[in-house]
Design a protein that fits this description.
Order of helices and strands: HHHHHHHEEHE
Strand content: 5-15%
Number of strands: 3
CATH class of the largest domain: Mainly Alpha
Helix content: 55-70%
Number of helices: 8
Largest sheet: 3 strands, mixed
Shape: elongated
CATH topology of the largest domain: Alpha-lytic protease prodomain-like
Oligomer: single chain
Number of domains: 2
CATH architecture of the largest domain: Up-down Bundle
Radius of gyration: 25 Å
């Protein structure tokens, strides 16, 4: 738990510093270099800075153990972060679309070549940040770090789109191709679309977790296969599992022979719980209810 929190903080700090540098570079160069696409990419990076700061503030809360007031732990704090970041990115996408469309109604000038190289540099940096963040998020099942990784992912395509948009605008001016001059404006709208898609995915997942949607069927079937390895289990009456931030809570109802003692039922439930938790390190709790099983012909 301590290592998980330390790594989460490290990833968040790296994201804050790198995004701050990229934000300043893209906004300044985008503004003075006359590139809406690079400037929009800079606004997105500014949102990343805000997201990373929020993650830093909430990581400690999310990793706190369960207590009397929060018996299921504090894992959903990370989900709330993911939802806040998603809403922020949604607002950013709307702003960028507005600015991009408005640009078609003004005189068009090609951006500076420096704006393109800033976008290329951002593209390379974001690939490195995305892959490293996603690796840690998957290893420690952290929704907060995953939110950071998705932000980096949006910037990867956004940065290359901005670079292509700037290049098209420069080509349009050099070769007197009027429509190509709008390449930068079109790229900024495309960047907004990419940001919107990431925001939509993040908000959908966050809402599903907050509404306690059952986890995917494939994983449930894996749980069932492990439970059925115990011959004492005559029937699985119900199985549910829900994500609670970076961990999973499982609710299980099984039927065992009605003649089993309370201790035998307790020992069986304990063995099933330990096997599931040993096999899946993201399972935080398994609640098992025992039902009596009567062979056919008996009441």
């Amino acid at each position: 738990m301590v290592m998980r929190e330390a790594l989460a903080k490290k990833i968040a700090w790296i994201s804050v510093i790198s995004n701050l540098i990229l934000t300043l570079g893209k906004i300044i160069i985008g503004w003075y270099g006359n590139s809406d696409a690079v400037f929009a990419d800079g606004i997105h990076s500014a949102a990343d800075v805000f997201a990373s700061v929020i993650v830093l503030l909430v990581i400690k809360i999310a990793n706190k153990p369960a207590d009397k007031e929060h018996p299921y732990g504090h894992g959903k704090a990370e989900v709330l972060v993911s939802e806040i970041v998603g809403i922020l990115l949604l607002l950013v996408s709307i702003y960028v679309v507005y600015e991009g469309i408005a640009g078609f109604f003004h005189e068009v000038e090609s951006p500076s070549i420096l704006a393109m190289w800033v976008a290329v540099f951002s593209f390379v940096a974001k690939i490195i940040l995305y892959r490293s963040s996603l690796l840690v998020a998957q290893q420690y099942s952290s929704k907060a770090i995953e939110a950071i990784a998705f932000d980096h992912k949006a910037d990867i395509v956004a940065s290359i789109a901005a670079a292509v948009g700037v290049l098209l605008s420069i080509i349009g001016e050099q070769f007197d191709l009027f429509f190509f001059l709008y390449g930068d404006k079109l790229a900024s709208i495309f960047v907004a679309y990419l940001i919107f898609r990431i925001a939509k995915d993040m908000l959908t997942e966050a809402f599903d977790i907050l509404l306690e949607r059952n986890i995917n069927t494939e994983t449930i079937q894996e749980y069932v296969a492990i439970i059925n390895q115990f011959p004492e289990v005559k029937r699985i009456d119900r199985i549910r599992a829900r994500e609670h931030g970076h961990y999973v809570l499982v609710d299980l109802r099984i039927a065992i022979d009605h003649e089993k003692t309370i201790k035998e039922g307790h020992d069986l439930a304990k063995a099933i719980k330990e096997k599931l938790m040993n096999h899946y390190d993201n399972i935080h709790e398994v609640l098992i209810h025992l039902n009596p099983y009567f062979p056919k012909g008996k009441n």
